[in-house]
């Protein structure tokens, strides 16, 4: 637009809108506001960082100050547990032995073994978890799906506990009879019966617990020794492994050839009385009528116990009786009569509570968790019977 003729042109742009117009102005206004907000945010972040640093320094100082007390308390608990003879074998910390038993050389019998008490049959050199024997041999076996052990027999009863998963227990010279154990069921196989176990889960390795009272003696079914040798086992004719070179004592008397022993026959339903189902909670009791020169006859008893959240129960106290607690699910605290905790145990941990633990009074188990805890209690009076052949009377 023009003004009067001969005059200079008039601009519609005001002085404040120069250099880009209104859009430029708005940008400058918003940028200034954003800078102020960023400054305030930075200040708050700096303030928060200072507070975090102060809390960290305070926490570190408190932790450092309390550490000697915590270590002292822990040491006191350990000393008291040792005084009572209470030991914990932690599942996560026990060594797992590969190829420690003759039949593990056979591909379908591959598994890992953890030894708690006594000896592993056919391998008397593996160290046990607990410091003192209790009159029986005890292992956990982690078995891949479809695997198991080879047919064999003992001169003592053998107890199998399904710690998790489903298991087939077979018996007969060809394993022609069988029964299935579900989690926490167990079976007590009579002495001299040819038997085996197998993990029948399709996808997962599972744990089975074995208890062999008395002497660790075994005879393998015919052809087992030969098959193990074909797969690399170095053993004598009875199946005792020789690769663990330094024997501390002779292996004589720990095994025998299959042809030299009398095998006991059992029919397809003859094992039923020896199967104990968790759902039924039937206590297992077995007492020897002979074998003890002096004092009461040795015995073994097994039962389940469930402990409600924040509840406790007193362990049975009988003269001359040792206890073993296996945590099937949950966790427990073992406490003395003075309500002092001397041990803790989680799933699949085992707690040895020997005779001397009861000399000062009651010992009880407390469940500190918000869920039910289930334990398997094994009571035995056979500490001096490590060389006894324990049979069902």
UniProtKB/TrEMBL annotation:
User: Pfam families from the xrefs?
Assistant: Cupin_2
InterPro entries, alphabetically?
Cupin_2, RmlC-like_jellyroll, RmlC_Cupin_sf
Annotated coiled-coil segments of the chain: none
* Location of the Cupin type-2 domain: 143-206
Question: What protein am I looking at?
Answer: Cupin type-2 domain-containing protein
């Amino acid at each position: 637009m023009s003004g009067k003729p001969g005059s200079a042109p008039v601009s519609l742009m005001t002085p404040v809108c120069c250099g880009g117009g209104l859009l430029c102005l708005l940008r400058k206004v918003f940028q200034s506001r954003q800078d102020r907000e960023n400054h305030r945010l930075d200040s708050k972040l700096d303030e928060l960082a200072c507070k975090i640093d102060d809390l960290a320094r305070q926490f570190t100082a408190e932790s450092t100050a309390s550490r000697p007390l915590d270590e002292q308390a822990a040491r006191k608990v350990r000393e008291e547990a040792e005084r009572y003879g209470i030991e914990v074998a932690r599942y996560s910390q026990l060594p797992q032995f590969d190829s420690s038993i003759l039949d593990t050389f056979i591909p379908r019998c591959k598994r890992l073994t953890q030894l708690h008490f006594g000896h592993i049959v056919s391998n008397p050199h593996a160290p046990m978890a607990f410091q003192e024997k209790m009159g029986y041999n005890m292992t956990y076996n982690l078995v891949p799906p479809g695997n198991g052990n080879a047919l064999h027999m003992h001169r003592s009863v053998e107890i199998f506990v399904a710690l998790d998963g489903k298991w087939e227990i077979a018996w007969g010279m060809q394993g022609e009879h069988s029964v299935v154990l579900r989690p926490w069921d167990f079976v007590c196989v009579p002495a001299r019966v040819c038997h085996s176990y197998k993990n029948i889960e399709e996808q997962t390795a599972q744990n089975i617990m074995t208890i062999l009272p008395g002497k660790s003696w075994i005879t393998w079914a015919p052809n087992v020794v030969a098959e193990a040798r074909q797969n690399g086992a170095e053993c004598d004719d009875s199946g005792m492994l020789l690769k663990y070179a330094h024997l501390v004592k002779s292996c004589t008397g720990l095994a025998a050839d299959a042809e030299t022993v009398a095998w006991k026959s059992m029919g397809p339903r003859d094992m039923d009385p020896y199967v104990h189902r968790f759902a039924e909670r039937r206590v297992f009791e077995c007492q020897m009528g002979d074998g003890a020169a002096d004092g009461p006859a040795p015995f073994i008893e097994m039962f389940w116990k469930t402990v409600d959240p924040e509840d406790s129960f007193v362990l049975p106290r009988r003269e001359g009786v040792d206890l073993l607690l296996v945590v099937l699910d949950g966790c427990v605290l073992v406490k003395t009569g003075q309500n002092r905790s001397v041990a803790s145990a989680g799933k699949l941990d085992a707690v040895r509570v020997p005779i001397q633990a009861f000399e000062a009074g009651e010992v009880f188990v407390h469940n500190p968790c918000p869920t039910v805890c289930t334990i398997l209690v094994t009571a035995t009076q056979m500490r001096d019977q490590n060389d006894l052949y324990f049979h069902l009377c």
